[in-house]
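Human: Respectfully, please carefully check these C-alpha cells:
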Amino acid sequence: MHNSFPLFSDQSNLLYISETIIDKEFYSSMHSHPNLEVLFFIDGEGFIRSSEEKIKVSKHDIVIINAN
C-alpha cells in the first residue's frame, strides 16, 4: 500500500511525503526520479537494489537516493 501526501507550500522544496507498506503484494521495478529521495524505515528489514549493489536496510535506517 502506498499513500502520498502532497505538500503545497511556497516555503518548502518538498514535493510530497509518502507512506509505503511493503508486504507480499508489493512490487517495485528499477526506476529513477528527477528529484532526490529520502527513505526512512520505521519497521522491518529487507534489501534495496541499485544498479550496482544490494543494500540491507532495517528499522530506523535512512537511505538517501540522488536524483536520476
